Amino acid sequence: xxxxxxxxxxxxxxxxxxxxxxxxxxxxxxxxxxxxxxxxxxxxxxxxxxxxxxxxxxxxxxxxxxxxxxxxxxxxxxxxxxxxxxxxxxxxxxxxxxxxxxxxxxxxxxxxxxxxxxxxxxxxxxxxxx
Amino acid sequence: xxxxxxxxxxxxxxxxxxxxxxxxxxxxxxxxxxxxxxxxxxxxxxxxxxxxxxxxxxxxxxxxxxxxxxxxxxxxxxxxxxxxxxxxxxxxxxxxxxxxxxxxxxxxxxxxxxxxxxxxxxxxxxxxxxxxxxxxxxxxxxxxxxxxxxxxxxxxxxxxxxxxxxxxxxxxxxxxxxxxxxxxxxxxxxxxxxxxxxxxxxxxxxxxxxxxxxxxxxxxxxxxxxxxxxxxxxxxxxxxxxxxxxxxxxxxxxxxxxxxxxxxxxxxxxxxxxxxxxxx
Lengths: 130, 280
Hints:
In chain A, a hairpin with a 5-residue loop joins strand 3 (88-95) and strand 4. Chain A is of the alpha+beta class. In chain A, strands 2-1-5-4-3 form a five-stranded antiparallel beta sheet, sandwiched between helices. Chain A is 27% helix and 31% strand. Chain A has a single domain (6-127), classed as PAS domain (Beta-Lactamase). Chain A is built from five helices and five strands. By secondary structure, chain B is an alpha/beta fold. Chain B contains seven helices and 14 strands. In chain B, helix 6 (221-231) crosses helix 7 (247-261). Chain B is globular and about 50 Å long. The termini of chain B are close together. Classes of the chains: A alpha+beta, B alpha/beta. The A-B interface holds A 1-7, 9-10, 12-14, 16-17, 114-115, 117 and B 95-97, 131-132, 145-148, 152, 175-178, 183-188, 190-191.
């Protein structure tokens, strides 16, 4: 596997030290890394899963609105960050691997490095207190 | 290619009796190709002596800067070919988001930091910001990638048809890693160093010193050996020695790490003046 860009390595290192759940994806949307706090949402340890293709990890969540209706993927912050290359924030519900419905807030932003290199995106999750 | 070390010290020149074997000049390494291409890696104080060694009919020289910290550029105005009319000098270095490479270097090459300005340089001087792709430098292919060190810093891999050299003089791949070394794909500099015939790598600290200087952008000698092992290089030159390390200390540090880690590759102490021929 080729070496990750230095900016992505630095992002992972920061994520390892933070308690907010953080996902890092590459320009194709593949999940490159998620930190220990994100394991509670995914239900699996990064050490077990390693990187995951977009098609695999995107099916783990079931993002829905307040009425329980599935969200259009294009409304999700990470997708906006990836496709429109600008930061996005949203509050919605997800059903994770443990079947629990959680209300979360997500902030996502693209990783754009020097010379306009698009390296992927980062999403930070907060669970909204009940 | 012929690789010669002209300055092996990090941070600050440190001449004196206690550093006479490893040398007191800051980072500078020359690479000479079989077809005559002359590359200079970094312009620390070691570049002064290197500049005096070139033949008078030298036409073109390439200076590849890893970054613009003072110990890597301080020797530039004392580099004789820079003052020589008719010589093309090409300076490559990392881009910044604000100022051009030329503007950043001229901050140093101008009063009050230095009395001589760029107008007084007689050579045909060209500045190039590194793209994020392989470049052709004379007979060599050169790859540059950003590596872990404060401020934009690159490492280089220089390839010819027979051999490869990787130069990572200021590099802290262990920064922020809960375990080191980790896998190759998550280790800074690994792609540049993978399988290289020769790796010149930051080994500024002892393991104890590193613990007190995490985030300064440098490695311990043990980390340099671990990194070299991960990358599968054939020969390692520990480099960028701390100014406070005497020859006796460096002998002992290198001996201890070899004894502890038993690396499966050659470790050649980074001493000023040594020459290493690669590719037969």
